[in-house]
Amino acid sequence: MFMRQHNTGMDSLQKLSNLHINDKILSKKHFHVDWPDMEKILNGEKSGSFPRFGRRRTKFELETSSFKLENVKPKELDDNHVTGSDEIMLEHGLSYDQMLEQVDRFIESLVSARDKSISPEIPDIVEPFLKMIDSRIATYERREASAKFGHNQDEDSSFFEAVTRLSKMVHCLDEFTKDSVANGCSNRAGSVFQHAMSMLETEFQAILDIWKRNCNVTIMDSKTPKTPKQSVFNSNQPEIETEFPYFPPGSKVVMKEVATVMIFAGHESECCVAYTALRLNALHAEFSKQEYENINMEDFQRMEWATQEGEIDNWVHIVKYCTTNLFSVERKLCYSIFEHAPIAQRLFCDLATSLTIKLLNFPNALLLIKQYSTEKLFKFLDIYETLCDLISVIGNDLSAKDLIPKTQCKIGEAAVSILCELKDSIKNDNGRIPVANGAVHPLTRYTMNYLKYACEYKDTLEKIYRQHKDETDGSTKQEPKNATENNGESTNTPHFAKELMLVMDLLDANIDTKSKLYRDPSLRYIFLMNNGRYMLQKIKSSNNINEVMGDEWLWKQSSDLRQYHKNYQRETWGKVLQCMSHEGLQVNGKVSKSTLKERFKSFNAMFDEIHKTQTAWIVSDEQLKSELRVSISAVVIPAYRAFLGRFSSHFNKGKQQEKYMKYQPEDIEGLIDELFEGTVASIGRRHGFNVVKN
């Protein structure tokens, strides 16, 4: 880094800025980019010709212009470093300090002159001073284009000091419009000044372009020896930055000094246009390096969704790179080069706005497709959240504050449309073929997994639905005083929670309709239990969806499942239990053996049919399956054991008992444990029982 050990050009600039300028000076309140000039710079051309001599300077340059020059004491040039400019000073018997002191006195006389029709006498020192600057410019221009400055910081500092004085001199001479001598001097000084400004602008652009070479060098071996073509900036520091923006440390110092001199001299516009144009080039190149390019809209529309997902992931990556790295680095660079904060902020604002427009082209192109199938929701939510991050990092720095929010709002509306598509797909799922064996319906699986994943974005979706409601209503309405005033629905319920409950209600209604496709009432209740239990377990297994649905929904769902369970037991095992009823077994006070035989035969037939049928039925939830088996056993086995114990003595031991009392209680328990496995079993073959045929 350049370390100043004396009053540098910037120190002198600050002192010069204290010179009093009369009230006729014009000031430029705002920097305005000349886009034709910008295009020339992007094409490698100069921004245009400078004025013949001193221009009116901007408000920034004149804000602190009230200074006395007698204390300006620039450092002497190194006696061992003799240049053409040194020879000029030696020829006139002057040191560098002495020359500048005489120039300062001349400038003071111009400023203090009250009569602007006649200029003070032009001292002999002016011409050697102009020749010295011309000589310095020639020396710089003989050097390679990418490193005019940075070889000798004392030499650079003295040059900036001289150009600063030249700028002040030209400006002051310009006020003596009626004095021919002053005009002649002004023309001569203006010509040198123009030459100096042209060289400074060219060098400013050249240094700004260093990133191109350094970006390429970063892929080389870090041990590659330095070559003459590499940067000369501060050779004691690392040669280059290996990360964006790829500037050698010393180059930033030089750019700051050049920019400060140019702006003080009235060339803020040229300096800022050059900076903006070349930094845009660098930023767009960095986008390319990160593999982000503008996508052709027609090509994008023809892509399969899987390919589009990949492009969305790439976009999210580059935006995150911008929010975590690129924008902060570019802001820091602006403020390190332009020490006047309003100029730095304005330049960064222009750059950030340009990059943001480039970034927003992608989601805006995605919105034009308008094919909002349900699987696209989560990528749209990723985009929405990424835009939230972009707003938090850069939103206040953009020239158009609503630039990102407009796109973000459209993405949010697309997400709302996608969830509407989900609701429509549930309502319109009118398949007339029941799912085999009462299993969980694919619609239930899809919807619950979809909602579980969606609830990982619950905060984002809440924000989207709140914004959607505000826009739909036109403005946020005042909540009613009674929190349950709106048809019994709590107005305190979050917007997304209401939407989620609506989806669940639609799913419940659809599943209830599909359950009626089963002719067997028992299977209908198995189907309802399977689907209801699947919904319940999905919600319990995720804190996010559980939090959104709330305890009230969980309680209601559990209550519905208990009712389905009771209904199943009544439909399936009610008639079986009737077979073991004591009613109707006695005739004239005695047990009717024929009636008893019929009861055992009916029990065996019913149980065999239930086992054969319901072994094929599916209950995929192990806990529900166990609960069903335990509840069946608790009802059937005690009743069967009591019936068997009381009436088995009415049959002769041996074949008669084997014929009618087909099962022992432990056999019943084992067969119940085979229910709901989704398999087909033959009781006779598996247990060796004789089948009663009549």
Question: Which SSEs are present, and which pair or pack?
Answer:
Blueprint: H1 9-16, H2 35-42, H3 59-62, H4 84-91, H5 96-112, H6 126-141, H7 153-173, H8 180-208, H9 210-217, H10 249-264, H11 268-289, H12 297-302, H13 305-337, H14 341-369, H15 377-394, H16 403-427, H17 442-454, H18 458-473, H19 495-515, H20 521-540, H21 543-579, E1 586-587, E2 590-591, H22 593-614, H23 622-647, H24 655-660, H25 665-672, H26 683-687
Antiparallel strand pairs: 1-2
Helix pairs in contact: 1-7, 2-11, 4-6, 5-7, 6-7, 6-8, 7-8, 7-10, 8-10, 8-11, 10-11, 11-14, 13-14, 13-15, 14-16, 15-16, 16-18, 16-19, 17-20, 19-20, 20-21, 21-22, 21-23, 23-25
Outline:
The chain has 694 residues and is mostly helical. Among the domains are: 90-219 and 244-289, no CATH class; 571-674, Exocyst complex component Exo70 (Monooxygenase, Up-down Bundle), CATH 1.20.1280. The protein contains 26 helices and two strands.
Question: How would you characterize the overall build of this protein?
Answer:
Among the domains are: 90-219 and 244-289, no CATH class; 571-674, Exocyst complex component Exo70 (Monooxygenase, Up-down Bundle), CATH 1.20.1280.170. The chain has a two-stranded antiparallel ribbon. With 694 residues, it is an all-alpha fold. The chain has helices at 9-16, 35-42, 59-62, 84-91, 96-112, 126-141, 153-173, 180-208, 210-217, 249-264, 268-289, 297-302, 305-337, 341-369, 377-394, 403-427, 442-454, 458-473, 495-515, 521-540, 543-579, 593-614, 622-647, 655-660, 665-672, 683-687, and strands at residues 586-587, 590-591. Residues 1-36, 46-82, 217-241, 475-490 and 684-694 have low confidence and may be disordered. Keywords: Exocytosis, Protein transport, Transport.
